[in-house]
Amino acid sequence: MTNVQLIEVGPRDGLQNEQKLLSVDDKVELITRSVEAGVRRVEAVSFVNPKRVPQMAGAEEVMSRVPRVDGVSYIGLVLNRRGLDRALDAAVDEVNVVVVATEEFSRRNQGCSVDEGIAAAVDVVGDARAAGLATTVTIAVSFGCPFTGEVDPDRISEIVARLTDGAAPDEIALADTIGVGVPAQVRTLAELTTARAPGIPQRWHFHNTRNTGYANALAALEMGAHALDSSIGGFGGCPFAPAATGNIASEDLLYALDRSDIVTGVDMSALIAAAEWLGKALDKNVPALLGRAGAFPAPR
């Protein structure tokens, strides 16, 4: 029997590309439902400029109202020192710092070069650790970029080395930001990352744009993944990803994990109910499939 952490990113990545803006009340409700379902790590907020990403407005108010439960860790996404200052003031438990692997995506998404992004991440990790926070660095577009195409795995290996040489984070996350990856790439990147950053747990972030997200997640588990990101209902998507269909869905992923005897501590029926609620809140159909087909065997 294997254990893996299921990290709920719906309150952050699941909402950042939605046309309908949820209220603070609704964001807190989504986070509360995640915690009540048994999720113990929630990427709850993003400390970005709300003028650029209005879906992420109200981060401080959200954090002031989330349920503080023993064993539950709230993650805030940050891009720079200003974001870290906000995260510290809001009393998050962890920070997730994003570095982008390609120049054009980095400049469009974060307004800086890759080198500048790496330097900022190293500084943020060091300062966050000094403040007692756990740290993750996510390498975005690790599998492919919408502007420059294929990303050389050696490029990711180089970025991992630079990050760990600077101020090694507690966790490294590799993100298929636009949903182009396949399991063979997962295995390659896992091996390279392990070689460059031995002993640092690996977290993986998959989108299901081309219906490979779940296969990629299972491949990551085979390679020793410590944690997997997913989004309730399968909502989400990158603003720069054409025809994005969302993150892998928490409930669909949980079905595959449960049936594979992999323990997460998360309740499937509670996730299905949360997805139905979120679909109504967003006025959208739920992309995930489990809520339609149901679990197997059917609960008695």
Automatic annotation (TrEMBL):
InterPro entries registered for this protein in UniProt: Aldolase_TIM, HMGL, PYR_CT
Domain Pyruvate carboxyltransferase: 4-272
An annotated GO BP: ketone body biosynthetic process
Cross-referenced Pfam families: HMGL-like
Keyword Ubl conjugation among record annotations: no
Alphabetical UniProt keywords: Lyase, Metal-binding
GO MF term (any one): metal ion binding
The UniProt record lists the keyword Lyase: yes
Similarity field: Belongs to the HMG-CoA lyase family.
Stated name of the protein: Hydroxymethylglutaryl-CoA lyase
